[in-house]
Records
---
Amino acid sequence: MKVTDYPLTDLLAAFRSPAPTPGGGSAAALAGAIGASLLAMVAGLPKPRAATTEDLARLAADGAACVALGERLTALIDRDTEAYRLVVAGFRMPKGSDDEKAVRGERVQEALRMATETPLDVMRACADAISRAAAIAAFGNPHAASDVQVGLELLGAGLRGARLNVEVNLESITDGQFVAAMRDEATRLTLAGEGGIQAADRAAAEPPDPASRIPAGEVT
Amino acid sequence: MKVTDYPLTDLLAAFRSPAPTPGGGSAAALAGAIGASLLAMVAGLPKPRAATTEDLARLAADGAACVALGERLTALIDRDTEAYRLVVAGFRMPKGSDDEKAVRGERVQEALRMATETPLDVMRACADAISRAAAIAAFGNPHAASDVQVGLELLGAGLRGARLNVEVNLESITDGQFVAAMRDEATRLTLAGEGGIQAADRAAAEPPDPASRIPAGEVT
């Protein structure tokens, strides 16, 4: 049974249990999934602030993107749990002979790369959803402004939480080129995401202006 | 059916749907519940850093507290959805006569007070769990340091997200004394929570020192 099939109360009990999965990586993906879902909800509410056909189309497009990103982040909850299981399985392989050691080492490195790429995908999806928040704050139903802000809090937690998981896995990876490339992208996504959160806060604080045009996100 | 009985995928679909519940208030409680659960997991892991009976007892006590706080925050997910439904039901009451207007006004104010107290309870529980994080970071299994940090990200999102919901409801409450008291406590809990996050970050960054003593949380 996949983690995402659990009833919520069972899922939270699974996070609480001392079993190593689900852990922080799945929790970061879940935070992002909730955040993207809140943005999608606001984009779909009646009585949007958008008044022109163009602004309404922009709101609908960003809402649809957040629906898809929420679904992608949901799938990443399970993928992170699976990636961590593969790392543990690799470390449990026999290491009696030199051959066994070599096979085990390769399997562990492969699993660690997947365990790094998964939270990096979480970062990509969170940064993408964040880049949609300014338009949703500007054009969505103004009474749901606090839902946009809560969504951003969760997407920020998902972005930063996923980065912690990227970093912790990179510490054990021996391929220096892979490590440098992953670290560069994690830094870039963090900067884009934190900048997007500030842009959305500004869009939410500004008085409604039907003529305003929010630049499209250029994150991913 | 309560929101917390939903399978996770259905719950996320409910957040995404344009129906007003579940909304940001329940999402903030859920963020806190995941965060408290991660701290509880780390406190229960084998091979803790704590070496003395006293430190082990402290770790166990903080872990047990986080289990209870995680369960309390889970219950608050449903309570927030219920509180919001009562506000909407109040606004839909008849307002043809002066009597009807008076009854409706009282019902709305009562529902708004519950809709304010619920996220304030979320803030209390998040701040309490945060106050346990420094000891769990110092005495728990050091390999789970990133899980503590992801837990703190989620508890911070829960704390700030709940405060947004306190503030948005206070705007419509006419009882000035209630508004001032709620606002004061929300500010106090924010300061305590943000301070607790910094203290936990310091505890996680410090090298292990079996003689260290983390002061007990004094938040709630």
Note: Chain B is about 75% helix and 0% strand.
---
Amino acid sequence: MVPHQFSRCHSILKMLERSTSTTNSFTRKLSSDSSSYVSVQDDEEIKELAILTLQKKPINTFCPNLLRDFTIAIKNIEQDKIKRAVIITSAFPGRFSAGLVLPSLLGKTLEEVKELWRWLQASWLSVYGTRLVTIAAINGHAIAAGTAFAIGCDYRIMAEEDYLAGLTVIRMGIPVPFWLSTQMANLLGKQEAAKAVQLGTLFTSHQALENGLVDEIVPLNRVFEKARQEVPRWLDIPDHARVAIKQDLRQSLIDRVNEVKDVEVDQNAALVMQPNIQQNIARALKRLKERKNNKPS
Amino acid sequence: MVPHQFSRCHSILKMLERSTSTTNSFTRKLSSDSSSYVSVQDDEEIKELAILTLQKKPINTFCPNLLRDFTIAIKNIEQDKIKRAVIITSAFPGRFSAGLVLPSLLGKTLEEVKELWRWLQASWLSVYGTRLVTIAAINGHAIAAGTAFAIGCDYRIMAEEDYLAGLTVIRMGIPVPFWLSTQMANLLGKQEAAKAVQLGTLFTSHQALENGLVDEIVPLNRVFEKARQEVPRWLDIPDHARVAIKQDLRQSLIDRVNEVKDVEVDQNAALVMQPNIQQNIARALKRLKERKNNKPS
Amino acid sequence: MVPHQFSRCHSILKMLERSTSTTNSFTRKLSSDSSSYVSVQDDEEIKELAILTLQKKPINTFCPNLLRDFTIAIKNIEQDKIKRAVIITSAFPGRFSAGLVLPSLLGKTLEEVKELWRWLQASWLSVYGTRLVTIAAINGHAIAAGTAFAIGCDYRIMAEEDYLAGLTVIRMGIPVPFWLSTQMANLLGKQEAAKAVQLGTLFTSHQALENGLVDEIVPLNRVFEKARQEVPRWLDIPDHARVAIKQDLRQSLIDRVNEVKDVEVDQNAALVMQPNIQQNIARALKRLKERKNNKPS
């Protein structure tokens, strides 16, 4: 097998070619690409920047449709040669994402559960492996898949009020895939990551900063603006060089996921179908509903 | 070779099967399994928890017999299906372990030294690779092999008084095996680990906490209770999922050890037999005895 | 392929043999090996220590000649069996090194640029892979290649006044090679390294300490003395054991560089020859000259 560093200069040279070709002929129509679950907009000032907003009411739970829309949105931005960066955020202040939608895992056929896992892998790789600068503007709780997509980005800014972030799915008996524990270790160090992913730890914003789960915290109402202000620092760097290094740092994990992804889908889907896991999911869903009903409306 | 993540779901499914089978028929007789060097007891309240106490007078120096008893104790707890966690501690407050017993390395035959190394590898792997939650209650100095077993655990609580921990054997000219420098790097980060294992650094309790060598420090008389209080957090997580992640994080190092373990035994034993290393060991032993004799009795 | 840990004991035993052979017959003539760009001197008190001083006026920019002299100096010290440690420092307080000399990259033939890259690889490997204890006494700004050589050492002491260190070459569109991003990750952790190498971050001395880029900071006029004081701690450890561990920690990266080094030279030289990169270099050079001219003389 060719070591991943070989592929590097090929892509550098390709990017250099591309950057000298005519990008003006490309018609931008990103703002019209919004689905009901994901909106993509051009930034008003920074023309290289797209804003990807999760907008599935009420708390951006990831169902296969949202995962698909999200993946397509990333790919569309990538294909726009003018775009060099994307901010990922939520339309609902206080709620970045509550993770996978539990009913998508409950009482489904094996094939349906496999489909969910396939989209989860594909969408995460689309964020983790993109040439774009990726900045997570975590404007609220980021639970499970919410945290997964945030840690796939290059940079994370989180609201400093008492919001929570963490990979919690193990609490229902579903271990996070190795690519998430690996990326957690890249951010937290191996021992802290080992504890966090085995215990399903939820970090408050301040704990998230201290542990390296996020790069910065600011008041909720400044998260988005701070994310925009971070962008020029990254755009100052020539893309072909930044992407070459991003590839050096990330390609080997991407390759490992690709090697085992079908087996992983089969195994995780089989696990989710187990009666005791189904019971755990049903119980978690019941608790969520009870909590909702107990809230004053 | 099959990548280690493939083996993951196999073990998940096996663990799930096991957890639904009849565990009640299993007769527990752990508390009677104690040898003179290691005692294993059921926790009085948490039935899933075993307490493994090192009790070789006066300072738990590891000879082949203690290493063997220790390994067997871990294996026995593992085979008890009710047990899910183990606390490893010392019967002697202030002295967790002083490391390998020097006379076991001095004036022995090559075969005897090889035997010691084999047990050291086997016992460390039995801790590092166990399905059990492993918590080190470091109630005193943890020198050399004492630190080695502690860092093989999932979690470490150390007495906060001025106790010392570190991998010091390099001072006699014996480099720690690569599995210990790797696991040190997992806890301390690579540069701090590089310094610690090359210089044989001893850390005070507070330095150990700051550097990530231990997860928590508390007063000596609270170490054991704090370790017990840590257990439920880990038992809350379904075993099959926790173990799957532990395997993701640890299997590749275990595989690497297994690939080279016979060569390592041969090489390390040959090194220990070198005249200058024998002199270093003799000198260290002499210093220890002089220090003992100078103490008021 | 033989895993790198196999080669370990071979070298241990060879070093042991060597340390018992007659080292006195070796004639030391290090102090006379100085070229105009690099000076090598014996330490006055610690006979195992050599001092390697960069002395290319005015700011130690690395041209092929300096890289070659530097590499040869390291190799010469290595061949002196009495020498066990080297301090790398600059003859010009306030200026450790300004990195590669830009004219060496501008308007040159492909073969000339390749030659520069070959020496850069070779010189970095000579530092990173040496049996010697390597201590960087960073007595001033350490930019680009200046930082590269410092992070290849075992230990770094930096002047605490507001000096700068960092791998900045990406700002001209040249990505650092994977071996530098890997070693940065060993010091800073992966996420902090990812930011630093993608953004070409310059750290002040205090930031360098906080982030693990250096091990210690002291006032400029104490940097060299502090580096000398650090040496005995490392010389206390038997070389064969320290080197065995250093090899465990560093050999796999060295092997990876060696596998791809010719391809890397070809690709990086081709990149540097690209018109837009040549423009970036010309622009950076112009800015440097303007800055110089604007200074009161």
Note: Confidence is low (pLDDT under 50) at residues 1-34 of chain A.
